[in-house]
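Recall that a protein's primary structure is simply its ordered list of amino acids. Everything else, from secondary elements to tertiary packing, is in principle encoded there. The following example makes that idea concrete.
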Amino acid sequence: MDPDVATADDMESNASAPTERIALEEFQKKYISQWFIDQKRKEFLKLKQIRMTVAEYEREFVRLSKYGWKCVSIEAMMCKRFEDGLNKEIHLLVGILKLKELVVLVERSCKAKELAKEKRKANIESHDSKKRQRGKSHQTSSKRSRVFSARSNTSGGFSSRNKSK
């Protein structure tokens, strides 16, 4: 093997991030239509988690971010865009952390999702418990009212036959 000839693996491992971006841009200009790139950039800019898991959202975010890299050229900007696309319940929990590393943000987002799920489950259990308590107290009060109404009908000591005489 000729030592002066670099392999693709050598070039990839030795390439710096700006060089890789320039190479990617040149490749895209040459082989991918501008319309396609624009569509993918728009898709990236509109990306929201909605019904995806955090892991699915991260995967899609990273995949599309190469088309919108100008919008997320700094990792802090990337984190902000990722955070803005998260569901509200997760966004509220991780937004206050002001994280600047995507890996950490994704990890905390996953934990926030788990916490939100546990909170929902606890709320449902609490609501069900309150319903059962209300149901028991309603049954007890309705039993009391039946007993009370039965007693009040007969409490006069006179039957309806005696009143008419």
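Residues 102-154 form the longest helix (53 residues). The radius of gyration is 33 Å.
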